[in-house]
């Protein structure tokens, strides 16, 4: 059986992202999935993070036979600013990973990584092949980092790989300069799950008192969301209800929306419950604001929206959504957003609905992972 060590940038719980969707479908592989480290500074920003500092000393979790989730030790801060700190961190991580590999009988697995910082780890962990799956322009996140350092680490990492994947075309084009074996594989959707939202579902309790039509957003409430578009529409149409499902990220400016009576924030919901909520939406919203981060993102929520068949109103970001322009409503400005919402609410075109469902089916995680398998087999990695 093939062995994979996956160094993820998202913990396995609670939100299934690309990492979990891909690893969960490689059922013919034995996998050690490592949740990302947290910084020793993390508890200063979030007191609940204090317990996570010791998570690596706790028990592992068996997700299924052959797929085990482990936590990594905490790291020194400023590793995205100073390469020497990253080297210290990653060598410590490598020692920890080698011990886990030995305990699980891993010899020379495929090393599958998601972060530029692992460039200083990969030479210290025995592996048969190296795969980098790039899901973001990591240097665009800001915070305690030097973008030039992060970009340099990423290109160096790509150059060491047997295969590179990227979720957005601009990411793939940049990484291809370091490694010609780079493939553009966008994000996808758990089609069978989100297709359930195209059918009648019981209305969740916290939606029952919210008036229709509901224009819904599902996903992390990040700074890169066009909240001003929603504020403009919510003021112009107080009879519409705007529902947000997802956790709030630091830096997200929600103050204006929280003052509006027709904006509702329901918080994070278990992924398996999302179809019940989305079944009540009249319109699904994809709301990335213009910017470096939005340009290169591959929005999970967008492909999940397609799988519901429901009308979608989207900003023109990221570029990936433009290939679906015939199936959705695209709003470059706040005024356009209002008119697009009106058109979407009134939409009763079954051909558009079927077109979105078919696009969602073609964008399923099963299809994406099949593409990856084919490429890795051709490259001799699998």
From TrEMBL:
* Superkingdom classification of source: Bacteria
Q: Which organism is it from?
A: Candidatus Avoscillospira stercorigallinarum
- The entry's protein name is Glycosyltransferase
Q: Give the Gene3D superfamilies listed for this entry.
A: 3.40.50.11010, Glycogen Phosphorylase B
Pfam families tied to this protein: Glyco_trans_1_4 (PF13692)
